Each structure stands twice: as structure tokens, then as C-alpha cells.
Amino acid sequence: MNYKKVLSVIAVCTLIAYIVFALIVVVEVVEDRLLQNRKCLRDDLEKFDTNNVTELIFPRSTFMPQRDEIACFVMTTVDHKWARSAIRRTWGKSIKPIFIMNFTESLVNKAIKDEAILFNDMIVINGSISTDNEHLFAMKYFAEYFKISEYFLYVHDDVFINTKNLFNFLNDEILTNVVLGNFGSIPHKSKIISLMSNYLNFPFDSYLNRPDLSAYAAPGSIIKEIFNKLKRVSTSNSNQCTLDLLLKRNFYASKKFLTSRSFIYHPCIVRNNVLVNRLSPSEILDLWYYTSNANACNIF
């Protein structure tokens, strides 16, 4: 009898040891990845130089949204034509999508140029731009091309937004405060809905809800004001912050970043948790002044 108890104790201890070992391995892997990501961010900041970047605007004339439209900048790629088609087909006339494509000129083929000229809604960045500076370039275009837009919205092309719910969200949350959210998709597990998703040509690959895949909506006047300050701050020094890093790290760490709510933006298939920042425009500018200080960027 005692022999069986001893074996049971040994088995339990062995199991606990395996679990502890597995946890240690997981922690080490996560730490390694975090360290690598931080190193990449530092490298991106050091390499970032807007002087080495040119833009291909299609067509060359200025494209403007109407006064009642929301300017929405959408990061896309050459092979995501299906996503651009779905956005043009489903977003309606209330949202003015402007697609930003980050490729060298040699990779922008004739089909892309024809598509851009046909729909008058694409900007091609000709140069190697880090994903950590996408917000910066989207803000640059917003400040230069959209003089009358009330809001600024930035997403990726595989985020699908239900127009009615988007306007309800903006009306509820953006009247006096800036909205800062993480738009990401979590696919439904149902096989039937999965098949339906493929049939409807909607993307089923998901983003995870995490700060480094952030997107946000904000009053255009604040975006322009912050962008004008950003232009006067060198981004080539790794001790200074790009606006993108400011948004991703400092806002997500803010104790005022409290509200979490479910926001349906993809019809019937996925849901998204949108975090709402309760900072006022003046508080955002105060935070910007602080983080743009050369010695204040301690977010890594």
C-alpha cells in the first residue's frame, strides 16, 4: 500500500516538474521574442529617414472627400486586391478609403497603376518603410490632402467595418474625446460560418488584440496639430519617439485607458474589442510634448 503511495507521489512530482519546465521554456521564448521586437523597433527608428522616400500619387490630382465623409487610410499590399474590392463594395459612400501601399516602384505593376487611376483612392510609398511608421505616413497624407475632414481613421485592409456600427461608435464616443482603439478580428469557430466567410470572399485570417496591431480614430484637427509638431522632431534618433510608438506604448499603458466594449464591424462573422481612450485633446498634446522630449522616450 505504501509502495503505491510512493509511486503516486513520484508521479505527481514528475508531472509538476514537467509543468514547471514547460513554463520556464515558454517564458524564455516570450522574453526572447520581446527582446528581438524591441531591438527591431530601435533599428527601425535609427534607419527611418523620410528624405529617402518618394510617393506615387494616383492620379496626380488631389483627391478630396466630401464634407460629410470620413477619411479612412487603409494599409494594403499588391496581392490584397480582393480586400480592396470588398472595402470599395461594402463601405458605402460615407467613408472615403485611401489605400496606402508600401512597395518599391519596381513591384508596382501595371495592374496596380490601372486600379489606382480607375478608383482614385491609392497612394504608393516608394521605399522601405517600417510598419512602425505607417501611422506617421497616414497622418502625413491626411494633413496634406484632407482639409475638411472631421475625423481621421486608420486601419489595415483585412479589417472590415460595418458602416452603420462605425458611425454609431463615432457618435457615441468621439463627441468630446479622442478615440484610440485596436481594431482586430477574432474569427468565429463555427465551420458553417467559416465556409460562409470563404464563400463571401471575406478574409478569415485574424489579427490578435494586442497593442502592436493598433488602429485609431481621432478628430482631424488634433491629428493635424500633432503632425505639425512631429515634423519638427527628428525621428532618426533612437532616443526619440515616432508618433506610432507614442500611441502604441504610452496610451496603452495609460490608466485612463479603461473602457472595453464589443464592437461588431464584420457582418455576422467576427467581433472586436475596442478600447476607448478617455484622454482629452489637450491631454493628448501634453503627452505628446512629454514623449517628444529626447530623454523621455523610455518606452522600450
UniProtKB/TrEMBL annotation:
Please state the protein's primary subcellular location.
Answer: Golgi
Any one GO CC term of this protein is: Golgi membrane
Segments crossing the lipid bilayer: 6-30
Documented EC number(s): 2.4.1.-
Query: Which EC class does it fall in?
Result: transferase
| Entry coiled-coil feature ranges | none
Q: Does ATP-binding show up as a keyword for this record?
A: no
* Molecular functions (GO terms): hexosyltransferase activity
Q: Which UniProt keywords apply?
A: Glycosyltransferase, Golgi apparatus, Membrane, Signal-anchor, Transferase, Transmembrane, Transmembrane helix
Localization in the cell: Golgi apparatus membrane
Name of one Pfam family that matches: Galactosyl_T
Give the membrane topology: Single-pass type II membrane protein
| Family, similarity comment | Belongs to the glycosyltransferase 31 family.
Name it. Answer: Hexosyltransferase
Organism, by scientific name, is Chironomus riparius
